[in-house]
Amino acid sequence: MAAPRFLILADGDFGPMTSKTANSVIRYLPERTVGVLDRQHAGKTAQDILGFGGAIPVVGTMRDGLAFGPTAVLVGIAPQGGRLPAAWRNWLAEALDGGCDLWSGLHTFLSDDPVLAAKAQAAGRQILDLRKPPADLPVASGAAKAVEPFVVLTVGTDCNVGKMTAQLQLARELNAGGIRTRFVPTGQTGIMIEGWGIAVDAVISDFVAGAAERLVLQSAEGADVLLVEGQGSINHPGYSAVTLGLMHGSCPDGLILCHQSSREYIGDYREAAWLRIPPLREYIRLYETIGSAVHPTRVIGISLNTYDLSDEAARQACDSATRETGLPATDPVRFDAAPLLDAVRLGRQTYLNGSRGEAVSAPAVGRRG
Amino acid sequence: MAAPRFLILADGDFGPMTSKTANSVIRYLPERTVGVLDRQHAGKTAQDILGFGGAIPVVGTMRDGLAFGPTAVLVGIAPQGGRLPAAWRNWLAEALDGGCDLWSGLHTFLSDDPVLAAKAQAAGRQILDLRKPPADLPVASGAAKAVEPFVVLTVGTDCNVGKMTAQLQLARELNAGGIRTRFVPTGQTGIMIEGWGIAVDAVISDFVAGAAERLVLQSAEGADVLLVEGQGSINHPGYSAVTLGLMHGSCPDGLILCHQSSREYIGDYREAAWLRIPPLREYIRLYETIGSAVHPTRVIGISLNTYDLSDEAARQACDSATRETGLPATDPVRFDAAPLLDAVRLGRQTYLNGSRGEAVSAPAVGRRG
């Protein structure tokens, strides 16, 4: 099918810190985004609200949005309380009538809504519930350890620290440099950006690793490097199962550790001040130990999210991470991604020189220039 | 409700190494088991086939089974290929007509079968699909770390090494010794034996830890010790997600490491000779490191499954495990469970003396007499 042109539904919650899915689609697919539906900011642009996204207009009605010619309406935020608001259902029905498909990453499936399902069928449009896993997922066989490309997984000190963003940045720049690189989406936002993938957090736990394995096998052919989108954190009390299943199923040869420099506690438990984020060295030990119990792997670099720091503090954070770990560190959105690109290139070279199935050696430390 | 009396459906697969669920129910609930339906062994007894279970009769028709007065038919094996055979559907319908409930731990839910669902409703009987998770599971909050009882989780070197059996043995003997102990079921067989629980391997991965947490919270009141049934293994490529979610959600204070002494490779990958089972010391390091990243925990003893060894070799295996780890080791089914009972008692004492939230100290080594 032709690449979709999206109208993003983000009513009532469009903003730099709230609408994560909407914002990522605008950042990575601005050319495919015709507008944003949010009544409170109607008349402004994405640039006005987010600081990026240029002239993408914000509209206040579905009719105004449809006038920009979208082929799909993409749900870019989660509704409060999880249930579909009546206004949204009306808009989505109007979008189907207007010739649009629906793309949603909500836990509640739009295709289970009788009104929307009937209308989609009548109009010949598709409802894509991106979080709905395939029905036939296997238990992991270990097949991912034998694929040709160099497989890199992002792992984190917490949720929402930049594991998807780092891989998207690296994929773009590695491809630009002639290394055939595929981003492997494992969450709803990554799936929206790439148009394929499996939301592993919605998979039954017996099959999480099998889902990760299938994604690696599906994307391996003709690729030099696979960049697998990471999820959660190995010490996140709620989501560590997703993190470990993803790691053991995808059999990464290298890991990039992602961290938000200013964060002190695991975010979902911050109010209880329960789990202080340990030093990066400790995460490296945890991830390498538990990952290598199934397939040898090494952390090859550190990706920092410094969005809330001054330039000076951000540079210090990168230097400090490198001093602590002996690994290249950068914020690939704010600064140059080169240290991590070098780490992936070097890791792949070591991997090609050795035999698949042995951990790559630690890279020489690349410093920002 | 009154305790159910089970007729176990195990047609074509009743045997010591095949019908794991049927066998566990017969071992732990012989007084509630009125018979086994298996055409190939009709006329024999459970004792004839399994070496335990006494005079429990094997019958060849549902009519013969119903004559023994069951209140429920329990599906004790998984059908080849996962789909419900026509003969089984007929038997189960006959059982509903005969006044029985249905208990099943299959991945395919009996209550989704239109014929059986209609018949159950008409007959006023229940279909209990024990693997169907509650719809309202939360993301883990960490609440399990604050419960009163001493929480012990069995962890394994692989699947099917005795993690449920060890806990059932210990629960029985600790209760007999006056320590109020609850077995916490996390898999279909444990749920059948206890009549409650959640099959965590069937829970969506985002909520596995939340399911484990709920089980601990539900069973904490009035208990001195909780013995949580473990699942999978931390280095099992297919199921490690279940293992870690269960550990991080249940926040165990102590771990019992379970191993089948004669096993050399992770079982599901044995043909590929892929993953050799590392030394017990290595597992202790893995489980303590990754578990303590969320809640401090220690391995307090080793439970061995020596069913296929001679008495002499089994005793040597226990001695060897103790030498390697410095921890008490026994086969609690074959030999005396005392070394593990002592380890739990001592672990609990240390836990009571200290404050919840610190790892219990390693126990003094208890040796079999």
Shape of chain A: globular
Tally of extended strands of chain A? Answer: 12
Give the oligomeric state of the chains in this entry, treating copies of one chain as homo and distinct chains as hetero.
homodimer
Report the largest inter-chain contact.
A-B, 39 and 39 residues
Order of helices and strands of chain A: EHEHEHEHEHEEHEHHEHEHEHEH
Portion of residues in beta strands of chain A equals 5-15%
Which class of secondary structure composition applies to the elements of chain A? Answer: alpha/beta
Describe the fold and architecture.
- The structure is a homodimer of 369-residue chains.
- With 369 residues, the first copy, chain A, is an alpha/beta fold.
- Chain A has two domains: 6-129, NAD(P)-binding Rossmann-like Domain (Rossmann fold); 143-353, Rossmann fold.
- Helix content of chain A is 35%, strand content 15%.
- The first copy, chain A, has a six-stranded parallel sheet, with helices on both faces. A six-stranded parallel sheet of chain A has the order 8-9-7-10-11-12, sandwiched between helices.
- The radius of gyration of chain A is 21 Å and the shape is globular.
- Residues 362-369 of chain A have low confidence and may be disordered.
- Chain A binds chain B through residues 139-142, 200-206, 208-210, 234-242, 244-245, 248-249, 268-269, 272, 274-275, 278, 285-286, 289-290, 293-294, and chain B through 139-142, 200-206, 208-210, 234-242, 244-245, 248-249, 268-269, 272, 274-275, 278, 285-286, 289-290, 293-294.
